[in-house]
């Protein structure tokens, strides 16, 4: 009986010698080809559906371990060195004041373009090297804790929102000091010392965007919806010699609608009802095409 059981165990679990004899008796090349085909199909399926998600999960864990002032999530992430393309999906950033959500998008860095270190930093007509496309963009501002903490400090109230940090307290003390000995450090004239000589122009395309301002303590939330946005970012020399440079954002928006939408989870009284609602809320303004021109100087550095 024991010998019969041992014989069954040997037949159930073949040894390497038995496996080698089996492959020699049969067509071993065909079997290895079948195994290689199955493994290749499994590897292709993994690269197609799961590799980018695993990379996104790893990046999410690493970034949130290093960054403590908010939460960053990356659903999937993949890149191609040959085409200079970075693709991402289900990306959002959340902190105590705002949230940024992106459904999917990709970034193309044209590394094969010839780099000219003598190129002007502030040339809005320079060739685009960085290109960004985003689908399903949402930007929501629901709090301003820094401003509230500053008001509490101004009126001598006990801070309840943010615990003051030593660096912030030191910064406030420095701001209250006299500015007689402050020197304005202008930007270095060497074009190779700035990243703008490498990326003078950035083009951004957004498909289906939404900007929201409000929270559940307000009866209405201001929403700005648009279908397509074509933006171009560049820099040019500042209007004042005390500044470093000037930011320039030009572009156009299509099918823009500004609305006051009832805030979800609002439990207060509605004192002022909107005159009429269209879809989600009361339409304040709408337009088929909106042109954007935004200019802002970058302040000089204090030394």
UniProtKB/TrEMBL annotation:
The keyword Cell wall biogenesis/degradation does not apply. GO terms for biological process: synaptic vesicle endocytosis. The chain crosses the membrane at residues 30-49, 70-88. Residues 164-186 are annotated as: Disordered. It comes from the Eukaryota. Residues 7-301 form the Bridge-like lipid transfer protein family member 1 N-terminal domain. InterPro entries: BLTP1 (IPR033616), BLTP1_N (IPR047104). Keywords: Membrane, Transmembrane, Transmembrane helix. Residues 164-179 have a biased composition (Basic and acidic residues). Pfam families: BLTP1_N (PF20413). The keyword Transmembrane applies. GO terms for cellular component: presynapse. This is KIAA1109. It comes from Sparus aurata. The lineage of its organism: Eukaryota, Metazoa, Chordata, Craniata, Vertebrata.
């Amino acid at each position: 009986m024991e010998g019969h059981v041992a014989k069954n165990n040997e037949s159930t679990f073949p040894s390497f010698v038995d496996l080698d004899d089996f492959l020699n008796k049969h067509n071993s090349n065909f079997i290895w080809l079948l195994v290689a085909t199955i493994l290749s199909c499994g590897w292709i399926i993994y690269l197609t559906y799961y590799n980018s998600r695993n990379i996104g999960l790893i990046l999410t864990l690493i970034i949130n371990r290093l960054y403590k002032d908010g939460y960053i999530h990356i659903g999937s992430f993949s890149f191609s060195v040959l085409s200079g393309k970075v693709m991402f999906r289900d990306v959002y950033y959340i902190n105590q004041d705002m949230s940024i959500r992106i459904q999917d998008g990709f970034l193309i860095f044209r590394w094969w373009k010839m780099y000219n270190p003598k190129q002007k930093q502030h040339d809005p007509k320079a060739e685009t090297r960085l290109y960004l496309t985003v689908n399903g963009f949402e930007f929501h501002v629901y709090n301003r804790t820094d401003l509230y903490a500053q008001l509490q400090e101004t009126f001598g109230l006990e801070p309840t929102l943010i615990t003051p940090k030593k660096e912030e307290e030191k910064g406030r003390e420095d701001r209250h000091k006299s500015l007689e000995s402050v020197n304005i450090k202008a930007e270095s004239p060497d074009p190779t010392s700035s990243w703008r000589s490498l990326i003078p122009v950035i083009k951004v395309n957004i498909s289906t965007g939404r900007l929201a301002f409000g929270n559940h303590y307000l009866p209405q939330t201001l929403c700005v919806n648009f279908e397509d946005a074509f933006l171009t970012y560049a820099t040019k020399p500042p209007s004042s010699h005390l500044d470093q440079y000037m930011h320039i954002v030009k572009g156009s928006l299509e099918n823009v609608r500004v609305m006051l939408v009832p805030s979800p989870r609002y439990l207060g009284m509605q004192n002022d009802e909107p005159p009429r609602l269209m879809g989600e809320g009361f339409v304040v303004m709408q337009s088929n095409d909106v042109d954007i021109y935004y200019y802002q100087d970058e302040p000089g550095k204090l030394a």
